């Protein structure tokens, strides 16, 4: 009995765990159903009110593969040959052109290191890399290393560009992955417009330098949005979104407003504490780097901070006006309350959590808000994510829409350390002559203002311009670590060395086909399940019904395992599930046949049961382990949907072993102890 | 209820006959395969493929001529279930997505009265196709090898060898069966795809199950009936497990049949291939795997006898 007790407890734990893991999937489904029954504003309200619930359910649900959900799967190839052509000193040499053409053909079917092949091809013609690349003083291996670095960089850059764009496109659960030497896999579930995505992925990256709306201008715009939104919500009478959500947030805002006032003094006094690394970003001439400058930067930083505080003050002013005109509480700031006051203060710009960021983006898309936004303003978010308070925050920037300069003028960018003074990571940037002239004019006219480095609409850095930069060489400070500096350098290079991406494989599945597959898959699974279950009862009577229970528990376990490992369910995955059912039946049949044999020799039920299980055991283990071998190999060598099949199969094998050997066994044991007569047909 | 109870069938006595049956089937299959081949799906071939659903029945030859005019000659057009659902495929890949766009554009312009919906677009480059083929071969070979190693730990080596030869036989028979059915049944439209590859690997896993269970019984019975002839013991074991073999193969075949009939287009290749695999897997467990072991043991025995006889002399 004691043995059975542990088994029962373990089983219950597993069943419970499976239910807990499957629950978000059910929740997601029911929320989706509720949402689809709503229309227009109601559905927007629903999404806003239940944002957290929806997000939690979405995070925890069983992932559906592209074949079930619809969406796009794209394999991108970084055009390394084009890069080799771009950076060559002489591009017109006929032998060189010929070699590159050959190389292009090879690169289409091979995933080997292109540079190695390139070198071989050159050697065949009696040439070396030096003929086309590098300085005269460089030796061959140095040039090779440089080229390899350039290639590696271009791939990293391509990935960051792709990630950036995909994130901005707003796809839920995108997957971006580097495979092999120069390929990127992008999976975008639920995307229904492949055309947009194609353009998004293949377009050349746009690097721009844009000035920020700062100070009063920024405050006015934010205030206007807040006011309009407050009015808008008033007129709808429903407080726009969930009232309780607003209320909780209201109290938060009230708290932070007071905090803002107290921290204001604090920040004034502790300006030298150097807490806010981000503010120290500044562009300055490389030639003059004295300690005076550093202190000056800090003053600049402080100035921007004050500006933000001003915004906050306005916030309170605004609430006062609302209270005058209305009976509602004074701190009715539907827009400001979406920002985290504390973090905004330290970051020197409005900061919002990822959840609120979504809300803000929805607000900014509203017609009434669009109407009051000045036409020369572009709203962008920081690439950097601030992790605090158990959430992810990003800084919102109000950029001047017209770019001061494009990234094409950047000829080089490197991440290094500031060796002369601070020893901190910095990025050095060089521009061509055309850019240098413009840059000098721009920096000269905007000293002490911020200039954002924007790639595809995402702000990578917004350093303060410290002085007029005339030589074309700039230095950017204020990165927290070398990684950040490297990323910025990569971003800055994307203007100079675009990494052309080619779509070499693409699958897109329309949502209706996915629904079709789900429906057919479910129908056939259910049908198969019913057939098999009926057969088992007919053939094995009571034993069969226990086997059916095991079958059901098996399905539960497989789904639970899939959800807990965040595995993806695909159409072949459905096949895998059905196969699992087949195997579960197999195991039970194996055991039952053994029990029958033992019963035939005249053994009593109890010992027949024991011996049956015991004798079937070795066959069960052997057959399951061989299936595990094929499952693992399928997982290693399969791609996309096939991997999904392998995962389901492996999950099925594990749960099947457990249900057959442990669960059915103790059920029989308990029933026997209670003196039930068991029949095996 | 009981079926196949207490059977005394002499399976192994007829093994020579079944060797011939298997061989003939495989030879015929390979001939059909080399003449007709199994059409390679987009995964292995490379190219662009669109699955579309029209509102009204669409005429394949009209569409073909539209495609010819649009500069996409040799378009492969297949109906899927009915005339409304079509699959268009061309080996042309083109830069980016131009081919798919071209197809869509041309159809939109020329079939104004019959709007359509693009259900699925696949574009596969030649690089991918080559890799898939390599990976497919690797997967099959490594699986067989992995099973061989595992089974040699659990059984005598000749058993694991027999099992793996049986698996190899299953793969060949199934390929043959797919090629033959594809040639004989025009509406079947089987294609070498990633899902079919999955079916092959699954059938390897499933077929070895069957074999292992029979071997397991042989392993047990050899200890019980030490003095009996190996062929007799094996026959006894096959008969003892026959009921289990038929029932499990039957139920799994049933589920796969349901998949084939109701599982939709995507699972058809899989269920057809795996269905055949179940039949041949069951068959080969007895007539290939066990038979090879018997023949090997007989061979060793006669050799031993010869050496014993030689020594005596």
Description:
The complex is a heterodimer of chains A (about 675) and B (about 325). With about 675 residues, chain A is an alpha+beta fold. Chain A has 4 domains: about 1-60; about 70-205 and about 500-505, Alpha-Beta Plaits (2-Layer Sandwich); about 205-480, no CATH class; about 510-680, Multidrug efflux transporter AcrB transmembrane fold (Up-down Bundle), CATH 1.20.1640.10. Chain A is built from 21 helices and 19 strands. In chain A, the strands form 4 sheets. In chain A, strands 5, 7, 8, 9, 10, 11, 14 and 15 form an 8-stranded mixed beta sheet that branches. In chain A, strands 12-13-17-6-16 form a 5-stranded mixed beta sheet, with helices on both faces. A 4-stranded antiparallel beta sheet of chain A has the order 3-4-2-18. In chain A, a hairpin with a 2-residue loop joins strand 9 (about 385-390) and strand 10 (about 390-400). The relative contact order of chain A is 0.11. Residues about 235-280 and about 285-330 of chain A have low confidence and may be disordered. With about 325 residues, chain B is α+β, with helices and mostly antiparallel strands. Chain B folds into 2 domains: about 10-40 and about 130-310, Multidrug efflux transporter AcrB transmembrane domain (Multidrug efflux transporter AcrB transmembrane fold, Up-down Bundle), CATH 1.20.1640.10; about 45-125, Alpha-Beta Plaits (2-Layer Sandwich), CATH 3.30.70.3400. Chain B is built from 9 helices and 4 strands. A 4-stranded antiparallel beta sheet of chain B has the order 2-3-1-4. In chain B, about 45% of the residues are buried. Chains A and B meet through helix 9, strand 18, helix 18, helix 19 and helix 20 of A and strand 4, helix 5, helix 7, helix 8 and helix 9 of B.
